[in-house]
Design goal:
Layout (H helix, E strand, L loop, with lengths): L9 H17 L8 H24 L2 H27 L7 H26 L11 H23 L12
Helix pairs in contact: 1-2, 1-4, 2-3, 3-4
Length: about 170
Amino acid sequence: MTYSRFEDLPVWQKSIQLADGIYDMTESRDWRGSRSLRDQIERATLSVSNNIAEGFERGTTNELLMFIYIARGSAGEVRSMLCFIERRKGYSHFKSQISDLKSIAESCSRQLRGWADHLQNSDIKGQRHLNEKSKKHYQADKKAEEFKRELQNRLPPNHPLRNPGQ
């Protein structure tokens, strides 16, 4: 699936859910953490969605990959701080919330890793590099590959051309 806006990306939406949850926790009147800890975890959680957005808008695959990895690093940073908070006395009342937030951060990391793996195996250089000729060439290659798969699926299950290379 192709997305034209970063707001439509499932991983961006999940990262916003993470930020909402972090802010709900740190803005709670039960929060007893230092200002620096609060500031750091809030900055890190916003870094996830902001780097996804910035990378998406850059227009090249290489830049997008760089920002995906920065976003992934920030998701890890959030998880690390949640692990720290979870161990501290005075935060036991956030135990369930912390567990949920760690799961959301892990989901962001997994999605970002999958996206990065997909992009690294892609021949697309990015929107900034596409002109009409390269767009047509890419679409033709994509249609040819889809047609080839369709033909292979119509072959008998044991036919050698059905699954070449196996």
